[in-house]
Amino acid sequence: MERFEFNYPAAKALPGRAEAGVVGSGDLEALYEPKTATELKIIVTTSVDGSHSLWQHFFDRLNALRELPAGRLDINDFGATPGVARLRIEQVFEEAENAN
Fold it and tell me: What is the arrangement of strands in the sheet containing 71-77, beginning at the earlier edge strand?
């Protein structure tokens, strides 16, 4: 197991907390918590050793494609593909956006 931390400049926080996905064979869990900060702190815990640069590139690209929300994003990965990772992260942001 490896653990990485990334920080990206962020816009305003989303209204609520949210979670998407489950940790299991080939999947990923994403947990979002809003914070009154100007950054998104991302913590990745993964079963895939040596994947730091892959996650770094993944979040660099995501940051280039969309405005990230302020807060904390915890990723618990069990070998998810980049497509599944993107899906879960978009799902958790959408759920937090619509939280009451």
Answer: 2-9, 39-46, 71-77, 28-34, 18-20
Helix (H) or strand (E) holding 76: strand 71-77
CA dihedral 52, 57, 58, 61 (to 10 degrees): 160
Name residues whose C-beta falls within 8 Å of residue 66's C-beta, 6 or more positions apart in sequence: none
Angle between helices 52-65 and 82-97 (to 10 degrees): 50
Res 16 pLDDT > 90: yes
pTM of the model: 0.93
Other C-beta atoms lying within 10 Å of the C-beta of residue 60: 12
Average pLDDT, the chain: 93
Residues 1 and 45 sit within 8 Å (Cβ to Cβ): yes
Among candidate residues 30, 33, 36, the one with its CA nearest the CA of residue 58:
30
For residue 25, the model assigns a pLDDT of: 63
